[in-house]
Amino acid sequence: MVNALVTGRGAAIGVRLRTRVEVSSEAKEGWVNIRASGSAGDLLGAVYDEFLKKTKVQAFDIRALITTDLPGGMGMKSSSSVANALILALADAYNLTMSHMDVLSINTSASIRAGVSYTGALDDAAACLLGGVTVTDNRLGLILKRYSAKPEKAIFLIPRGLHRPDVTKKLSSDMRCSLVTAHRLALIGRYHEALNINGAVYAYAYGYPNQPTLEAWRLGASAAGITGNGPAYAALAENGVLEELAKKWSAHGKLIITETRNSEEDSNHGSSV
């Protein structure tokens, strides 16, 4: 909803898409091996390493089976969701009870170490884990505010032939100011406007087409724009608008239709077998 890459402050909203991770100490066909690691790009290894540091338990060879509704590399927070689910699965395997903040602390540290996030993506991890709207200062590791989102349909567009550019590109001071404004709006409950501003800023900065967003606004979506830093688009809408928007957006790529979520149900699940 408000990407924290530029300012270090972000906001995210939970939706009803699931990620599930199962872990086992036994070798299983199709399961991935996980070893504690600090290597760049190895999110699963970094999560296990941070988990071991936090809990002081003994390391084992771990295998994991990951299933998720979220496509990777689209700005839809698949990394945050998978990391949460893996932490919960490891806690289950070791018969440990972990607080929400313990889970989020491991997630954010591992995300930075693995290089999948510059800020730790606390906003994304918290929204994935807890649901609702989460507004954070990722630089300080603080959840500034949490509140319930309006029950609405959420539609995501995975655009054909569109890829994320270099996200280290510098944004102008005007763009940075716009993202600060979006964050402040999210803090006071005006998250629809925050999503609109964030989407417009990143679309302009990275050259994403405006047509999907304009189509959503014209049809009456309550919010629409690039999700995160893209390239996927997101819109929030009532049922009547959703049906018309789905017809329009289907011409641009694949659609994922779900709804906002204000609880921990149907989010990140982890288990051991």
TrEMBL record:
Source organism of the structure: Candidatus Marsarchaeota G2 archaeon OSP_D
The record's GO molecular-function terms, alphabetically, read: ATP binding; shikimate kinase activity
Claim: Amino-acid biosynthesis is one of the keywords in the record: yes
Write down the top EC class of this protein.
transferase
Q: What is this protein called?
A: Shikimate kinase
SUPFAM superfamilies in alphabetical order: Ribosomal protein S5 domain 2-like
Q: Which InterPro entries match?
A: GHMP_kinase_N_dom (IPR006204), Ribosomal_Su5_D2-typ_SF (IPR020568), Ribsml_uS5_D2-typ_fold_subgr (IPR014721), SK_arc (IPR010189)
| Location relative to the cell | Cytoplasm
One Pfam family it belongs to: GHMP_kinases_N
The pathway noted for it is: Metabolic intermediate biosynthesis; chorismate biosynthesis; chorismate from D-erythrose 4-phosphate and phosphoenolpyruvate: step 5/7
Q: Is Mitochondrion given among the entry's keywords?
A: no
Matching entries from PANTHER family are given as:
HOMOSERINE/4-DIPHOSPHOCYTIDYL-2-C-METHYL-D-ERYTHRITOL KINASE, SHIKIMATE KINASE
The EC number(s) this enzyme carries: 2.7.1.71
This protein's UniProt keywords: Amino-acid biosynthesis, Aromatic amino acid biosynthesis, ATP-binding, Cytoplasm, Kinase, Nucleotide-binding, Transferase
The UniProt catalytic activity note for this protein reads: shikimate + ATP = 3-phosphoshikimate + ADP + H(+)
Q: Name one GO biological process term.
A: amino acid biosynthetic process
**What range does the record give for the signal peptide?**
none
Q: Name the family.
A: Belongs to the GHMP kinase family. Archaeal shikimate kinase subfamily.
Any one annotated GO CC term? cytoplasm
Residue ranges of every copy of the GHMP kinase N-terminal domain listed in the record: 45-132
Principal localisation: cytoplasm
